[in-house]
Amino acid sequence: MKTMFALVAALLAAAPSLARAGGFESSAPPLASVLERARKENKPVLLDFAAVWCGPCKALDKELAKPDNARRLESFVFQVYDGERGEGVALAERFHVTFYPTLVVLDASGTVLMQGGPPRPDEVSSWLDGAASAAVSDKQLEALLKKRPRDVQIMWKLAQRARASKNIAAERSWLTRIEAADRSPAKEEAAQAAWRRAELAVSDRLKKDARALAIAHLKKYPQNPMEALSVLAAAGADKKTLEAEYKRVIAATSDASTLNSLVYTALGAGAFDAALMAAEKQVKLSPDEANPYDSLAEAHHYRGDKDKAIATEKIGLGKKASPGLLAGMRDNLRRFENGGTSSDVRVPGSLDQIFDPKMLLASSSAHDPAAITKRMFDSEKGSVTKACSPKAGGLDSALVRVTVGEGAKLSKVEMLEPGASSALSRCVADAVRAIRIPADSPAVRVLVEVPFDPSAAAPPKAPAKPAVKRTK
């Protein structure tokens, strides 16, 4: 996508001249330098994520090149990233870009103020105006809210900013205020805020369950860790937990390829100590190869130790490696000297990108003791139906409460249907007790609905034939 024509480049007077390849900058700058420029110029940042094959990107580019929109772009530090090459790969992961073009507005600290796109051609101007107004600081918005204390639109902007910066407590607070402030008859804003709070509650539960499942998996299968580690990071595990789980896995791993992968996923998750541990172990396993030194240098670089990163990379350049790897290492050496991130280090995505929430719900309940016991009885209740249908006395089904004690001891079976006969209750209790419970079942109480088959009712007794009097 040719995201800026010569006209736009000229209008952005503060921007350096750009060398382009295939419509993109041949070497897009790191986001850190873009943010630094934004701080100096006191402007928000507008990022344009695109791809060379993207038709809608080219259409958006034509709109951005129009004189009126080009003037609007002067309000931003504008930067294009190819989401599939160079710096853009890691940034697309960071901002969860799933389609092109995607436009992201940041403040100079890197907080997301707006994200979306592409706007329709006739809406590009209004979108840019809205993006510029979104750059108003939180303090300015809160000052405006004091003058207009029931303005829910201001509250929504503050809630959205809190969400973008992952300040969930602040987002909940603004959502509560929106719900209280909406006094309209339809209560649309209140309903939307309440639903968002409900989503947060569900998300919290899902993330908690996901962390527990991931840790349980890593304890049992440390040699097969990658999916569980991804889920653990995406589910918001704290740094201490991430470091501990990564180190557990690294200690159990002796495969050089797996250790190499662990270096980069640990760096993306912020577990820098664990990344260093994996890289050092990789070097010990393959001291004559160049790639382990490249990974170790990257770990030093992310830990902020520039001198060690450079020295380690130079050692690696003296080891055996393919020409392509050595060329890449020389590029990395320049990056270590000048600063910048690696496209091989991926920040964990959101949980819904990594793990299907429906599967997560199923997996979390799969390990719940009550759910396990209930599924076991549900799968075996056909034997109760078959044995007791003749005694159902017209009942279509019966609710039964089953109590399982410690050591898989079935301690109580209660019929909860008031219309059940004593014969049916005894039959159900005997049939349920005949179901074999796994020896490791925990102490739980579950409800099971047992269906009955009306066609299996006991046939009525034939009336007694009258005695035949015999005559002599």
List keywords for this structure.
single chain; 472 residues; alpha+beta; Glutaredoxin; Serine Threonine Protein Phosphatase 5, Tetratricopeptide repeat; 4 domains; 4-stranded mixed beta sheet; 3-stranded antiparallel beta sheet; 21 helices; disordered N terminus; disordered C terminus
Concise overview:
The protein has 472 residues and is an alpha+beta fold. Helices cover 55% and strands 11% of the residues.
Describe this structure in words.
- The protein has 472 residues and is an alpha+beta fold.
- It folds into four domains: 6-135, 3-Layer(aba) Sandwich (Glutaredoxin), CATH 3.40.30.10; 140-205; 212-338, Alpha Horseshoe (Serine Threonine Protein Phosphatase 5, Tetratricopeptide repeat); 368-456, Fusion Protein Consisting Of Minor Coat Protein, Glycine Rich Linker, Tola, And A His Tag, Chain: A, Domain 2 (2-Layer Sandwich), CATH 3.30.1150.
- Helices cover 55% and strands 11% of the residues.
- The strands form three sheets. The protein has a four-stranded mixed sheet.
- β7 (397-405) and β8 (409-415) form a beta hairpin.
- The longest helix is centred in the middle third of the chain and has 33 residues, at 188-220.
- The radius of gyration is 33 Å and the shape is flat.
- The N and C termini lie far apart (118 Å).
The total number of structural domains is: 4
CATH class of the largest domain: Alpha Beta
Low-confidence stretches: 1-26, 355-367, 468-472
The number of helices is 21
**Spatial ordering of strands, largest sheet:** 4-3-5-6
Strand content: 5-15%
Q: Please, what is the average pLDDT?
A: 81
Radius of gyration: 33 Å
Query: Sheet with the most strands?
Result: 4 strands, mixed
Q: Per CATH, which architecture of the largest domain?
A: 3-Layer(aba) Sandwich
